[in-house]
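Let us work through a complete example step by step.
Step 1: write down the sequence.
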Amino acid sequence: MHEVLLLGIAASELTVLLTSDPRRWSRRLSLFLTLLLAVICYSSFILGVSAVANAIGATLALVWFAWDLVDPSARGVLSRWALASVGFVALLSLNPLNFPLLSLRSGRPMDLIIAVLFLVTGPVNHLITAILQCARGRASDPVPGWINAPVLPAMPAGDTQDDDAQAPQEPEVISGALPVLGVQAGEGTVTALRGGRWIGPLERLLIIVLAGAGAEIAIAAVVAAKGVIRFPEISQDATGEKAEEFLIGSVSSWILAALVAMLIRVVSLH
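Step 2: predict the structure and record it as tokens.
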């Protein structure tokens, strides 16, 4: 059951990240049902999960998806993940002999590890974005997906502009979405670098792998390297907002990676 539930939650989060306008529920629903059907087929034919467990997991995933449609705000996202964390700990503490259907330790450890790793990479970006949005004081606004999330400014093409050149106009702020930044180059617009949404999942995956290998020094090097790389950008911000955003986002991502690494170790021991 837990494999279907975790992958179903991941499917629900992916519909937000992959849909240009998360408020268009019909497109999201079609995408979610397609992904959920793929999850059910995977759990049934590959993992050998029973029909009852598939039904329970799919039902809970549908509840998660419906809750997100009703309350797409950042506060709602944090509430869902907080409730899911409590339920996850409760299911993990159940004795697999007494509760074989509900206990997270009743199945094969590798199946649970695969589901958690998939959930903690791309889909968790929705949670990180919600945390940053709450830190900005916009907890009641809908959380944007990958397509609407802010991006790094593109590298300008051609010669460097003069210092007296006209400053770029402020990007238009769309209700419920963060501004997308771009750099004008000549007559066209240079495609902006959307690296932030890839760095987070890759960083979490790298930390989990290094933690599993017992390479604590390498993890410290990764954390330090990220700070060094971001230092020139942060040092140019006189208000300190970029530094706070960097710390909140990075620490949240590292905590999630550490929790997953601890979970993998606990599950592997059983």
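Step 3: interpret the result. Strands lie at 183-185, 188-190.
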